[in-house]
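Would you mind writing out a protein's amino acid sequence and the numbers that encode its backbone to help me picture the idea?
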Amino acid sequence: ERLETARMVQPNYLQLQVVDARGESMATSADANPEPVNRVAVAYALDGASYVSEPYRAKVRDREVLAVAEPIRNADNQVVGAIAALFDIQAALSELVSTSRFNASGYAVIVDGEGDVVAHPVADRVGTGLQTYEAVQRAWATRGTGSVIDTNRAG
């Protein structure tokens, strides 16, 4: 119940799970159809390290998410478990771009490494491919991170 309360305070946390030192689940905030726990995230946390994954598409929720995990330590600083979470990065980024405006009609769009829209002020555009857009092709050519400005062909 406390995990669900914590999740409700920050709704971008789609799922929280506490595991013991063996990686066995002790508590979860998940609904009836949870995403599988990210074993890599839990393993890092049980080794005493923080973990944040690359963004990936959650199969059950069909959203871009991050897997995050932190060790739980006792008073002697020994790892006794971990808390793992599924963070809705798609919602967080969509919230960010929904309020970003440039000049009279410009706005921000976030595209993943495959050229698919991850965050857009118009929710129906999330998931559409922009692979043919010059801005996406220029970003691929540099293979870096940053920003590219282009004219919006879709309006």
Remarks:
- Residues 50 and 70 are 5 Å apart (CA to CA).
- The radius of gyration is 19 Å.
